[in-house]
Every structure is written in structure tokens, then in C-alpha cells.
Amino acid sequence: MTKTGPSRVLVVDDSDTVRTLIRINLELEGFEVQEAESGARCLELVPGTDVVTLDLLLPDPGPGGLDVLRRLKCDPALGRPRVVVVTAAALPEDRRRGESAGADAYITKPFEPVDLVDAVRALAPPGGT
Amino acid sequence: MTPEQLSQAVLDTVNAAVADGALTLTAVPGVWPAQTVTVERPKNRDHGDYATNVALQLTKAAGMPPRALAELLAERLRKVEGIAGVDVAGPGFLNLKLAAGAAGELAKTIVEQGAEYGRSETYAAHIVNLEFVSANPTGPLHLGHTRWAAVGDALGRLLEAAGADVTREFYINDAGNQMNNFGMSLALRANGQEVPSGQGLYEGAYIKDLAQAILEEHPVLTQLPEEAQVEAFRTAGYKLQLRLQQESLEKFRTHFDVWFSEKTLHESGAVEGVADRLAEQGHVFEQDGAIWLRTTDFGDDKDRVIVRSNGERTYFSADCAYYLNKRDRGYSPCIYMLGADHHGYVGRLKAMAACSGDDPEKDIEVLIGQFVKMVKDGEEVKLSKRTGNIVTLDDVIDLIGVDAARYALARSSVDNELVLDVDLLTTNAPENPVWYVQYAHARMASVKRNAAELGFDKGSAEDFKPELLSHPREEELLAALAEFPRVVAQAAGLRAVHKVAHYLEDLAGKYHAWQSEKKDCRILPLGGEAPTDLNRARLWLVEATQTVLRNGLDLLGVSAPERM
Residue B522 burial by CB count (10 A; 0-12/13-18/19+): exposed, middle or buried? Predict the structure, then answer.
């Protein structure tokens, strides 16, 4: 069945400011945005989401960013959303780890909001599919 | 630094050179002494931020070649704070480059001045009487009246912003036979009769509604003798119709300070006294038993009768009495805003003013507004559910809304016929000019809200770093903002309300262009970083632009929404 309505994005980051910034920029482009401040909350909210923007350095207790990424990619019950990793882990080996865990795009902080929006748009157009 | 401040700096430089003996200026009428110096934005920005031809203008007064005078002034201007560079070009033009901070400083000036930014004292000595709409109190206001309601009210706001003391006046044509015809038409309808055609009576469907409303309030009127009925319906109908007109105008945000009754001119003897008053100036004569005003002395195409040979006063004599009354109340100029069918009035009204001893170029102005029509689905809207045969002001409000109607009517020169496209003016798209400007304002409000959500604002005035606003798009936007006071003063002087609308559309375009530079001109910070001084400086520019858009929309009587 074809999904209608705007594409849904779940923004996962423990920083209120970063979540707000991403939400503002995505909403301006027509995406429907939800926010989660932890990995556990992400797993609760994710069903029905098209794209997740995911911080890898999530607070304890609860699953870390890489664990969340693997579950998102492996657990069919979670809908297998596309994932844009947004992280301060900027070393080449960090990126390799993220990509091998299934990241569809990898953006390092500090990031240009326009680049993030472009990455999300490339995975799911704002008007839905 | 605003263009006005720069102009003042150039003038101060000239005066300082005179004061210390480096320059001697002799008086030249219209040139020196001067109160202002013109600085203009050059088309080619390689020539600096502003240019002035002051050296060319003063060459005769200074008795020296313009280029040498320009060199003398350039050397001094280079030392002025806020001016980063001065070049002498061509025969003696001075090209001025502002210091980066001086250009950006304008954003702070605008934000601090708020609603005052754009206002001036340019026309402070003018006590203006602005007469517009002036419909007969015998029916609803139509589309032509609506054009003047929007443009006249906006012109009043504009003149006030330019310092003039403005009285907005509505002349109620409540004397003359049309009022009797009105009373007769109402009485016929109240008695269940048809209004016959071809007798100058009022046949519109609204007459039936008016008659019904009057009867509901005064059910005994139809029991009066016939003649008394006409009189009673005339009085009650006048009162009711005038109130309906007033309500429609208030709903359209068009406010009048004075509702002037023509009848009072007759009752006070002012109309009767016109011939004697005008005779004092020597332009009145008698011929064939009638009394005439020799308006041909002042360019009218024929002389005008004031008193007919049967002793009856003409409409023109009431027009004279009204003008003289306005002048007695101290107004100059008296501005008349008339419909296209009054084109012939221009010559006679101006000549009449001249016959009264006034200066027709200064004391009276007659503006003519061309026709306006409305289209929907490609077809002209001709019929009103209220009147059956005309489109009323209330219909315009219902179909388009107050903001869109006012904006659309104000954005075209009254010299041109105008078509209001209902479909276009109710579309949320950039092709709709009112939406385009209002949306820009709402976007600015949204950016400020977004910044607040991220926990920052523009910061204090002391911490503002204007020199950071150095992107070419920011320079363009600042230059456009700097023009606003001049646009207001110029539009007021030319009675050209549409220039404000065109300016606002240009400004909104420059804002959108600035924000289309998504990375280079980003207002919000990078993800994962704290806001910088540049983010804050850009918020100053957002707020300055928002202030100017709001002030400009207010001049047109159009709202500036925070959200859309």
C-alpha cells in the first residue's frame, strides 16, 4: 500500500538544542518530525517512521547509539527506517563502524543544517512516497 | 548610517570648509545656502555605496572647477567616521564607500526606532484636508468608492508619516433633489409599490431592504400623509444609509475625522454668500440675469454660473462654498480625490481656487482615480447579491478580504484602470503580491521564534557587531532598508501610495534572496555549536527588515501577520 502524507522523521539526540535545530529545519522543508531524547524512547516511537536522525553518543542507562542503529536495521517490527547518523564521532573508524552497522548517511557535528536536510530528503522526500 | 545621516555628513563637511576659510560660497538661488545634499545609490556598486553630485552643484557658488571642489571635499570626507573611502569620478562626482560597521549599524537604528522608522518631518508645515469617497447617502458604497477608501486612507497615513497634519474628510452630498428622490423611492417600497423607471428614482434592490428596516423601527410612517411620508423616509433613510456606509468603511479600516454635510453649507448661508466672497477678488460678473465666475481667467474651458437667472444656486456654487470653508478652516493643500467620471472638475476647481485669490498649484489638488473592476474565474463580477446591479464595498470584503483588497487597490497607480483578480488575490502563492509581502513578514517572525526555541536572541545593542553583516546579500538588504524613509517622503509628495507597495515587494524579494543563500547566510547556528555573534547580528537584520515591512504595511492599512 502506498503511504500518503508527509514523510515522518524521528530525531534522536540527548541535546535539546540539537533536536530543536534539526526539527526546525526539517519542518521548514515539510517533514513531520518527532523527537526522542534517548535510545529507549527512540525504539518506542520509531514504528511508522521513514527516517531516523540518530546521535551515536546517547546517555546511559539504555541502549547506546550503535545498538539502536543495529536494532533499527535488523528488527522488522521496527519498520526498518532509513537512518542518518548525526554524531561528534568524526574519526574514520567511527564512520566505518556506523556504516557497517547500517547507517544510510553519516554526518559529523558541528553540522550544516542544510546538509542534514539534504541527506534526509535524499532518503525520503518530504511529501511522502 | 542612513542616507540622511550621510547627506548630513556631506553638508557638514561643506559647511566646515566654509567656516575655516578653505571654501568661499556665494549665494546662488536654489543652490546655496542649502538645507540638504542629495546622496544616491549608484547602479554600479563598484562606484561605492552612495554618490553625490554636490561638487557639480556648488561649482558656480564656489567659483572653482567641480573636480577641484570634489577633491577638496573628498579629502575632508575621508576623515569622517563611518566613511571608509571616497573617490572623485568623472567631472566631479564623489563616490562614497561606507565602513562595514556603518552600513550594518542601520539594523540597530531601525530596531531601536521601531514604528518611528520611516517617519519624517518633510511635510511638517502642511495642514492637509484629504477628501475622499464622498458618496451620496442614497445607496451602498461601490467598487469605485472602495478604490478611494483604500488609497485615500493610505495616503492619509503616508502624509502623516511624512509629518503633515491630515484631516480625512467625507463630504456628504445631502442637499439637492436626489435626497427627495431617495425619500420617494423608500416610501414607494414601504407601501409595497414598484419604483418606476426613468424618473430619477432609486430602483436598486437595496431600497426595498432599507424601507423594510425603517418600517421595522418606525411602523407608523406609512400611515402619514403622502408628502410627510416622503420627508420622513428621506430623513430616516439618510440616517440609516449613512450609518451603513460608516460601518462598511470602519470594517475596511478607513476612518474619517470629519463627516461634512453639504446641507450645512446651505443652512449657514455659505452657499448664498459665495458670489459676494468671490466678487472681492474681481472675477465675478453678471450676464443674462445670472451671476458667473470667470474661471476662464485661470485656464478653465468655460466660465461657470454661480447663481442662475431665477435666483437658484448651482451645484458649482456649493462646491465653491465648500472649498472656501476648507480654506477658512486653515487647510492647504485641500486634496480632492474624485472618480474618473469627474475628470472635468479638475480645471474648474483649480480655476475657482485661483478666482478666490488662492494659489491653485499650492492650495488645491485634484486627483482622479480611474475605473476598477473585479474578475473571478476569468469573468467580470458585475452583480451584487445586495444591490443587484453594482459590486459594493461589502462584497469586496466578502470576496477578497480587507488586507488583500486594500493592498491590491493601493499597489496600482490611480492613473491606471485596475482589475482585481479574486482568484489571484485569495491564493497562498508568491504570485499574489499581498501574500508575498505578508508571508515574508511571517517568515521573519518564525525565524525569531525558532531562535528563541534554541535559547538565543539578537542580544544587547552593546554586543551587536554590525561589521559582520558583510555578505553581498546583506549589503543589498541594508541598502534597501536605508531607502525606506526616502520612499515614504517621496510617495507622500507625489501622492503615490503604490510606490510604498512596490518598495515592500522589492524588500520582501531581497529578504527571500538573502535567505535563499542557505549556508552562507544561515541565521540559526550550526548543529552542535553555540550561536555566534554572526547569528545574532543576522537576527538584528531580520528584526530590522521585519520592522520596515510592518511599518510599510501599516501605511497601507494592511496587517503584518506573525504566522501564516
Answer: middle
Asked if A57 is an interface residue toward chain B (Cβ–Cβ < 8 A), one would say no
Q: What is the pLDDT of residues B259-316, one digit of tens each?
A: 999 999 999 999 999 999 999 999 999 999 999 999 999 999 999 999 999 999 999 9
Residue to substitute from A21, A33, A107, A111, interface B, most B β-carbons within 10 A: A21
Specify the 3-state DSSP secondary structure of B128: strand
- Residue B185 and residue B201 in contact, taking contact as beta carbons nearer than 8 Å: yes
A113–B524: do the CB atoms touch at under 8 Å?
yes
Q: Which residues of B232-241 are buried (b: 16+ CB within 10 A; e: fewer)?
A: bbbebbbebb
- List the strands of the sheet with B372-376, edge to edge: B379-380, B372-376, B418-421
Check if A86 contacts B (Cβ < 8 Å). Answer: yes
Query: What residues contact residue A33 under an 8 Å CB cut-off, 6+ apart?
Result: A8, A9, A10, A11, A22, A23, A26, A27
Q: Write down the pLDDT at residue B222.
A: 92
Distance CA B380, CA B135 (A): 23
Handedness of CA B344, B350, B353, B354 (dihedral sign): negative
Tell me the pairing of strands B50-52 and B93-98: antiparallel
- B204's CB contacts (< 8 A; 6+ apart) are B139, B387, B388, B389, B390
Read off φ and ψ for residue A116, nearest 5 degrees: -65, -45
Q: What is the pLDDT of residues B37-89, one digit of tens each?
A: 999 988 887 788 899 999 999 999 999 999 999 999 999 999 999 899 999 99
B421: left (phi over 0), alpha (psi -120 to 50) or beta: beta
Chain position carrying cell 474618473: B340
CB B535 within 8 A of CB B541: no
What is the share, in percent, of chain B residues with pLDDT greater than 90? 87
CA dist B307 and B294 (Å) reads: 13
Count CA atoms closer than 13 A to A61's CA, side-chain side: 0
Using an 8 Å Cβ cutoff, are B526 and A110 in contact? yes
Chain A residues in contact with B527 by the CB 8 A cut-off are 18, 21-22, 86, 109-113, 116
Residue-level pLDDT at A3: 56
Q: Where are the beta strands (DSSP E) in B220-273?
A: 258-261
Element (H, E) at B483: helix B472-494
What local confidence, expressed as pLDDT, does residue A4 receive?
Answer: 63
Helix (H) or strand (E) holding B95: strand B93-98
Please tell me the total number of residues recorded for chain A in this structure.
129
Q: How far is CA B11 from CA B6, B14, B94, in A?
A: 9, 5, 13
Sheet strand arrangement including B83-89? B50-52, B93-98, B83-89
Residue B383, φ and ψ in degrees, nearest 5:
-105, 145
